[in-house]
Each structure stands twice: as C-alpha cells, then as structure tokens.
Amino acid sequence: GLCLTRYFDQSRAWCEARGASTLPEVWTNWRDLADALDLKPLELTRLEQDVVERGFPPRPAAAATATPPPTAAGISALPATCSPPCASPNVPKAGGGSTFGPPEDPRKYVLLEEIGFGVTSKVYRCQRGEDIFAAKAIGLKKLRRLPNYQRFSERFHREVSILLKLRHKRIVKLVDVVEDHDFLYLVMELVKGGELAEWIVRKGAFSEVMARHMFKQIAEGLAYMHSKGIIHRDLKPDNVLVDEPAGPGQDLPEVKLTDFGHSRLIDDGLASTLTARIGTAMYWAPEVSDPTLAARGYDLTADLWSLGVVLYVMLIGFFPFERRDLVDESLRCDVENLRFQRRASGAELSEEARHLIRSLLVIDPGARLPLQECLRHPWVTNSSVAPDRALEFLKLSTEPSPDAVEVRVPLVVKPSPEALHSLRLDLQQWMYKFKFFATILRQEVVANLGDASQAGQPELRSARSELQAIVERHCGRGMIVVNDQKMWSAIQSRPAAPDAASAP
User: Fold this and answer.
1) Which of 168, 171, 305, 481 could link 408 by a cystine bridge, Cβ 3.0 to 4.6 Å?
2) Do residues 260 and 334 share a domain?
3) How far apart are CA 340 and CA 392, in angstroms?
4) Domain carrying residue 42
C-alpha cells in the first residue's frame, strides 16, 4: 500500500550494503533508507506513517529540520521561495482587513473583497504594500473532519507542486504559499480580465479572429504543461483567465491557464496510469467519460479533446455534444456528423476552423492532432488579415456584442459546497437542453440567450424561466436582470412557463 515498488532495486542494494536481513532491521533504520532512496514528500509521509503504526519511532526534531514533515494540512514542506506555516490562524473575511502571513510577518497580506468561490475554496483580492494579488483560501478546518481528507490533502499538495514547477507566461504565476491552522493560502498574480467563460457569455460567440487569438495562447500554455509531463484534466473556459487590453491599439488580451487542482504529473511515482473520472463532464474526452475505458487508463491526449470543446464553444456558443458515459455508435455518429450551427447574427465558420475542431474531437486518442501541429495549423497561422485590421477586429471582439442577450440571476443565498455542486449539474443539463452557455460568476449565474432578434421565441422564454427556477431551487429567489429591452419586454408580455418556479 506504500506505492514504493519502483524503489525495489535500490532498497535491495541498501539492505545488502547495511547487512539488513529482517524487516525489524529495516524499520529501525528506516530514516537512513528514506535518505538513500531520496523519497518524494508524500512517499516519505506514507513511509513514516507505516513505520509509526508498526511501533517504531518517527523522525526526531533534528531530522525534521533537514527534511520537514508534512504540516497539519498534509502539505509537505515547501521550497524556500514559499512562506512556512503561520503561527496563528486568521479567518478570511472579505473587506474586513483580515491579514495572513508567515510567522515572521503575520500581517504580510491584507485580504480585500471576495472575487470567486468553489467547493473547497474562496478567492480574494489581497494586498501586500502597493502590490495587489489574488489569494486562493482553502478551508482546512471542515475538510479535516471528512473521511477522505487525505485525498483532498494530496490534491492541494499536487496543485502547489505543479504551480511551483510551471513558469510560463500562459500559466498563472504562484507568488507565495502560506498556511495556518484553518486555511492554506495560495497567493497568485491577479488577472483582471476575468474568466474566459464570462467573455463567451458577453459575446455569445467569438469571431474567428478573436477565437484564433485566444486558442493560440491556450494551446501554448497547454503545450508547455505537456512538455513538463503534466496533464491539466479540467481544461474549460472557467479555468482560463483573460487579461483585458491595456488600452485601444495597445496590448492584446493575454490568456493564462489556472486551477490545477485536478492536474497530475504523468510519471510522479504514485500511479503508473491515470484512471480517475474527474474534471468537468462536458469537457471529458470519451476515454475519461466511459468508465470501462477510464479504468484502462488515459494520458495527455485527453486534454486535446477538451481543447477542441473549448474552441467549439468559443466559436459556436454552446457544446458540440450531449454528455454520454459510453462510447457507442450514437457518439461516433455525432462526432462524424459534427454540426457547426452559428447564431443568427454570426457568419459561417471557415473550413479551416471546422477542420481544426474535427482534428481534435476524435474518439481515438492517438489520432488527435498534437499541440505542436495545432499551432502550425493553417487556421491558427492564418495571416490573411492585415496587422492593423487585425488589431481593429480584436478590439471589437473584446467588447460585448450589441446583439447578445445576457441574463444574470443573483444567488440570493450563498450556496453550500453541496448546493454549488448540484447547481452546476443542473446548469449543465440546462446548457445541453437549450444550447446556450451559462456560468457561475461571483454571486450570479450569467447566461447568454442568443440574439435580441430571437427575443419573442417561446424557446428563449422557456430557457429563461427554467434558468431562474434552477437558481431559485438551490439559492433562493432573485430578480432576473436582462441587458436587452426587447427581450425584457418579451418576458414581461407573455405568461410564465408552467415549469417556472416564478416570474420576475
């Protein structure tokens, strides 16, 4: 159960050199063995726990200084660039001036307003002197009560390790790591433009010029990750951050990948194959979605399918397929006959864009277009638009579409982790049903309901009503906000749909 079989030959050589012929002799000198094998932090933790359970002594304090044990959070000691655990906890309260930091500077960071939340964490803006960062606060106190806490602990450890390993302009930068008794704080660069998901909602669908600009950067970041042997496993617009342009005609939007909680180093010594069906189902590759195929293992190519779905969503505005757990003839038929339906106000996709999407959405993992080939694909390298015109198109593409109808439903009651999970599942089904894109941003569910020209259609009213009913079921009743007067008039003038919980 220690998952140390890859050290068998080294262990045998150590035993022969030390003359250790019985297990008690090995356990008594386990610290020397661990040093000789140069175990990774989690491997060292498992070995020490096993030794202690057998009645042998753990590492003494002096040894712990040289090779620090895991902290209370199960996060192994971090490199010198990261702050050690805090001496006293500070409960994060947005806007309340709460502080956190290492023991020598416990007020190093000041928490500002909350800017996002997830099942196990919240994200705040935080300040250090004149510098502003994003702080991901992972609550440890409640997690420790869970029977599967060790799994969460290992996931946090992986995320920290991966962020420390990845240094690239397309990857959000980890600045510091601070831990106290109740929270683990990941201090990262603040990307002010928000999530790519929010941009898609604002636009409904991107122009090919804008989608190309975004796709190229996402592919660059993913290619860098894969070059380090790291799979993302949760690539989606919600996990892509966009920096807004500094000004007209100046810097273009920059993309950075984020949220590496599900990421894994392919050959990390802990597992020979990846089999877990984790991430977001709408972006799962078939070999992840199908339990039988997942049990056989998958690799980096699973990210390529997710990349294809992201590109499709950017260009079309909704998902290419309904989620299926099994790779069957129905899915094969849908893949072979993939449709590229555009919104009423959008132009038809170019054949090059369609070819790239089809080259990524391939059921056979080995047949998907490699990332380096993606970056050399004719659609990506297209230079038919003059540079000055491209800048103009990109500027227009970053602005909300005047025809896109954006709907916002506030979360009156902040959802619990369980309610948040259920809300996301219901939104997933809503997106499949109505072919519109929706996401959770801060304290709202934000959705795009197509073009203003479609305002009077019964299907759009039904989509709006069901969306509000979903939010009310999980988070209480809130007044729906629509950015288009024509759509709002259509909502007001028609009777509520029978399945709607309420009308605005």
Assistant:
1) 481
2) yes
3) 26
4) 5-66
Which residue, among 248, 204, 257, has the nearest Cα to 394 in the 3D structure?
Answer: 248
206 shares its domain with 224 = yes
Cα–Cα distance list, 335 to 328, 340, 350, 353 (Å)? 11, 12, 18, 16
**CA distances from residue 78 to 69, 133, 332, 380 in whole angstroms, order as listed:** 10, 20, 46, 39
Token reading at 297: 């293992």
**Mean of per-residue pLDDT scores for the chain:** 77
Give me the amino acid identity at 360: L
Planar angle of CA 474, 478, 482, nearest 5 degrees: 115
The reported pLDDT for the residue numbered 448 is 75
Question: Among the three residues 398, 425, 444, which one is the final residue of a domain in this structure?
Answer: 398
Structure tokens at 374: 């993606």
214-218, 247-251, 261-265, 413-417: which is most confident: 214-218
Residue with tokens 């994200």: 123
pLDDT in tens, 119-143: 788 999 999 999 999 999 998 888 8
Residue 71 covered by a domain = no
Q: Is 136 annotated as a binding residue?
A: yes
Q: Which of 55-64, 232-241, 386-395 has the lowest mean pLDDT?
A: 386-395
- Residue 408 sits in the same domain as residue 394: no
pLDDT of residue 388: 42
Asked whether residue 91 is assigned to any structural domain, the reply reads no
CA-CA distance, 463 to 461, in Å (whole number)? 5
**CA 285/CA 300 separation, integer angstroms:** 11
- What's the pTM value of the predicted model, to 2 decimals? 0.68
Q: At which residue do the structure tokens 């699973």 appear?
A: 302
What are the φ and ψ backbone dihedral angles of 285, each rounded to 5 degrees?
-70, 155
Give the residue numbers marked as catalytic.
Answer: 234
Any alpha helices (H) in 88-173, and if so which ranges?
Answer: 149-165
Instruction: Please give the C-alpha separations between residue 181 and each of 48, 95, 443, 496, in angstroms, as whole numbers.
Output: 22, 21, 27, 50
Q: Would you say residue 438 has pLDDT above 70?
A: yes
- 84 domain-assigned: no
**Residue 3: what pLDDT?**
55
- Answer yes or no: do 117 and 179 share one domain: yes
Assigned domain for 498 exists: no
State whether 155 and 264 are in the same domain.
no
Rounded to 10 degrees, what is the CA torsion of 34, 38, 40, 45?
Answer: 10
Per the structure, how many domains does the chain have? 4
Ranges of H-type helices in 297-442: 301-316, 329-336, 351-360, 371-375, 387-398, 417-434
Looking at 143, 172, 189, which one is the last position of a domain?
189
CATH number at residue 176: 3.30.200.20
